[in-house]
Amino acid sequence: MGENGQLVELTRIQKYFGRVCALENVSLDVGYNEIVGLVGDNGAGKSTLIKVLSGVFPPDAGEIRWRGNPVVFKSPADAIRAGIETIFQETAVVDSMTVMRNIFMGRELVRQVGPFRWLDIRTMARESMAALELVDLRLRSPNAVVGELSGGQRQGVAIARAMHFKTRLLILDEPTNNLSVKESKRILDFIVELKKQGISSLFITHNLNHVYPVADRMFVLSHGNEVGVFRKDQTSIEALTELITLK
Fold it and tell me: Measuring CA to CA, how many Å separate 194 from each of 103, 180, 189, 244?
């Protein structure tokens, strides 16, 4: 399928944890070069849905199609190989590691001569700095420890990693949570810039004031059920708030 279709489609996804239904017949799609906001109150099923899409949980029923083809992601590594990168709120980066090691975590560059193998530190350092420049994140060294960076800078490192490895879909789990106004704006600017570079985003948040200005469409979940999908010109923050808070 060409790029006139949908990048990813989830159809009638169901997920149970014991007898508890976390998702019931939920359908969601994200197009090429599109930003979709996934919104809902706590317990709406947002995290479960993105974990199904990113290969953390298998769905109990339903289908995932990626670039027009049915897929089964048995692990997050499967989703990453396909071109889906997820930045989870708690585990976007490892604070005790350097910027370079975070960007290349699990995908380290290795040089080999005969039976001898070693990490290609020089190339990873150079490519890390180039990746940071793509998101206008100017750090003095790729060896900076991530835990010493601000919250916005840490999110920027995770986004730089996704861009470096040619992600097609970036899933962001509450990316502006606990950030200052200035850093939140920077993250939103990153997401808009990703769209210009051909990377779609699925933006999960409970903060409508952050997602509404940048999203093309808004997808509302409530108690594991699909409430509706709305183009931005068809709705408002006030209308979405009413939908989210309905019991």
Answer: 17, 21, 9, 27
Mean pLDDT of 113-118: 90
Dihedral of CA atoms 59, 61, 64, 68 in degrees, nearest 10, equals 160
CATH of the domain at 69: 3.40.50.300
% pLDDT > 90, the chain: 57
**Distance of alpha carbon 235 from alpha carbon 32, whole angstroms:** 22
Q: What are phi and psi of 183, to 5 degrees?
A: -70, -35
Looking at the structure of the chain, the number of domains it has is 2
**Which residue type occupies 166?**
K
- Under DSSP, the state recorded for 221 is E
Residue 125 CA: distances (Å) to CA of 42, 122, 130, 151, 154: 39, 5, 9, 22, 17
Q: Is the dihedral of CA 73, 76, 81, 85 positive or negative?
A: positive
The one-letter amino acid code at 131 reads: A
Tokens matching residue 21: 């239904």
Query: What residue type is 190 in one-letter code?
Result: F
Instruction: Tell me: do 77 and 171 sit in the same domain.
Output: yes
Query: Cβ atoms within 10 A of the Cβ of 192, count?
Result: 12
Per-residue confidence band for 12, with pLDDT thresholds at 50, 70 and 90 = very high
Q: Examine the fold and report which residue of 166, 183, 216 is the final residue of a domain before the chain moves on.
A: 166
* Structural domain ending residue among the three candidates 148, 166, 184: 166
97: its two tokens? 């590691």
- The confidence band for 2, taking pLDDT boundaries of 50, 70 and 90, is very low
